[in-house]
Amino acid sequence: MSSHRDKSIEPNRRDFFKKAAAIGLGATVGGSSVWRPHQASAQITIPKEPMPRRPFGRSGIMVSTLSLGGMFDILNNRLMLAKALDWGINYWDTAEGYGRGRSEEGIGRWFARNPHTRKQVFLVTKLSTRRGGDFTGRLEKSLKRLHTDYVDLFFVHGIRGISAMESSLKSWAQAMKKAGKIKLFGFSTHSNMDKCLEGAAQLPWIDGIMFTYNYRLMHEPRMKEAVEASYRAGIGLTAMKTMGGGPVKSDSESEIEMAGRFMQKGFSDNQAKLMAVWQDKRIASICSQMPNLTIMATNGAAAVEQTRLSKSDRVLLAQYAEETSGDYCAGCDRLCSEVLAKRVPISDVMRCLMYFHSHQDLGLARSTFEALSTQTRELLTQLDFSEAERSCPRKLPIGRLMREATTLFV
Ligand code: SF4
After folding, report:
1. Would you say the CB of residue 353 lies under 6 angstroms from ligand 1?
2. What pLDDT does residue 178 have?
3. Measured CA distances, 237 to 12, 188, 276 (Å)
4. Are 69 and 292 in contact (CB under 8 A)?
């Protein structure tokens, strides 16, 4: 086992809840209740308590176990950055493509006004190779928008297979590190995550990976092996899409039952889903979209309180995952996309539906859909998906869902 596990900092739960209670967030010290969204008040103040931190892979850099996902209009919500830092959320994630640059720009305005905070932040940005163009020039533009000379971690955005990490990227990463523009290098992925992680474990020049990982996927044998291999290789791991939302929204009885059970224990089912991932100590951080203080406070409370999930709670989550397996797309699109007459990124379209149905975020669903090529969008209504449906282990009605996406997002 890698020695970097030993460097982790355990949360100071008591202090956090003492202060949270003092400012009216509804938490009690060592008691049965944690803060809940409906208790939020207009004067929410985030307490200055140590957010738990873990080492990011072999780099040993200590990052907050909760990271601020920047897929929202940061330019108009810079207060969130102040509160995040105040609360010890030192890992900030953005990308060239988020909000067409407005996410990076918002962070940049923060650093322009608060240059002394740059060194406190573990800053991540991403570029997609699919967009083409001069990669170095695009990184320069990101740095300019971010008002900084370097990022702590650079991800190649949204790879679908490890073959995307070709040797030219290795040379590029080495050159950028030498020039001081990036400190660590890796990739993010929503697709074929197990394969990507397994492959990365063989590439010593990969420092970090951000990947879809949640209470649904963490028990799958291939995923378990892949996470272990990359962790042992010293790669820093960031989980995303931890709510495990799917492209189909069913009003399941078991979901209501599960929410009721967790509510009795004093936390929400969403907090439980985060806690389940944090209990995997190989995961350095969870990247979470937190576009408002209510969500940030709720997730922060869960980060501090992560050890409260009992074995039976985890069993309940696993049962729920099993019962609703047919509502979730696991991103394994090597199984479904490859059998099509013409290849389309099925799991990307499923993700748009997930943003719409599970996150109720039509804007994000639409902008993610618009990022697909025109040809891909046209193929969604033309292709026969029956072979793909037969290949899907979750038996998702792919054809119907592809057509639904074109109706909803065009
Ligand atoms: S549609 Fe099915 S096979 Fe395709 S990525 Fe989703 S879960 Fe995997």
Report:
1. no
2. 98
3. 23, 10, 15
4. no
Range of 184's domain? 3-29+43-320
- The mean pLDDT of 384-389, rounded to a whole number, is 96
Q: Which residue pairs from 377-381 have beta carbons closer than 8 angstroms and sit at least 24 positions apart in sequence?
A: 377/406, 377/410, 379/342, 379/344, 380/344, 380/349, 380/405, 380/406, 381/406
Q: Hey, what amino acid is at 266? A: G
Same domain, 382 and 242: no
330 lines ligand 1 (CB under 6 A): yes
**Residue 70: other Cβ atoms inside 10 A:** 28
Residue 105: inside a domain, yes or no?
yes
Helix (H, G, I), strand (E, B), or coil: what is residue 244? coil
Q: Are strands 66-69 and 122-127 parallel, antiparallel or unpaired?
A: unpaired
Q: Are residues 97 and 244 in the same domain?
A: yes
Nearest CA to ligand 1 atom 3: 392
Question: What is the 187 CA–ligand 1 centroid distance (Å)?
Answer: 21
Q: Determine which of 15-29, 117-131, 276-290, 361-375 has the lowest per-residue pLDDT on average.
A: 15-29
